[in-house]
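Fold Annotation — chain and its backbone

Fields — amino acid sequence, structure tokens

___
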Amino acid sequence: MSLREDAPSLAVVGVTGAVGQEFLSVLSDRSFPYSSIKMLASKRSAGKRFTFEDKEYIIEELSADSFSGVDIALFSAGASISKKFGPIAVDFGSIVVDDSSAFRMDEDVPLVIPEVNPEALSHIKLGSGKGALIANPNCSTIICLMAATPLHQRAKLAASGAGAAAMEELEQQTREVLEGKQPTCEIFKQQNNMNVKVTATCIRVPVMRAHAESVNLQFEEPLDEDTARTILSNAPGVVVIDDRTSHRFPTPLAVSNKDEVAVGRIRRDVSLDGNYGLDLFVCSDQIRKGAALNAIQIAEMLL
């Protein structure tokens, strides 16, 4: 039991949905402390009863008055609900951790993966009486960046990783190419503009849980397979499954209901000279780390 009188009060918005139910599972698994929980959902679900951690709860209909006395509100009810009720919760002084796309592109709302950019929450304080919005990134983005970030910290991903000057040169190259001029190549060794084709394919496959991603990374500095494997093995929230002899690599089934992001098939990108590129295969439970767990980890940082 994580029920404590001195702990923050919680609200779970969209509690009857898949991620809402996973919120409760993660809260229990991690013994997240709370003094009370409001179980909020649509009018259709209001009045239903269920038991969580040996206590019976009645689901309440989400309304503008739902957030009185709520310290942390976990939202997973879709972007339209978040856009309507998220600011209302903030006005009540609640810190909202939103799992939808509603605020991800808002420059004033921190977009947070705790293992990647915890400093983004430094200005938000629980118990200050001041509400705030925090956005959970898209599940596929979380899963990818859990693997890419520790490698970026060692060898820097290109090209935006090259900094503002490189991005300005890319813009300059674009103008020059369109005007028929020779492109400036001071930071980049060759013409970068119109010299790369990115193709992404997303498909739905018959698995109950977990996303699988084939990721190609290009670096500014050399990074070989063995070094990358060591870095990833030591990265928080990441597990390496990369046994070529036994043909053991990440699979959706292996990571279902697990917290970690699994990385395997770590290979040098042979299309690049030297050790400046890597291919990875990444798998993780999109309902767990890709949604509920990441949100609860954000809430834990506020305690």
Remarks:
- Residues 9-136 form a domain with the Rossmann fold fold (CATH 3.40.50.720).
- The two ends are 17 Å apart (CA to CA).
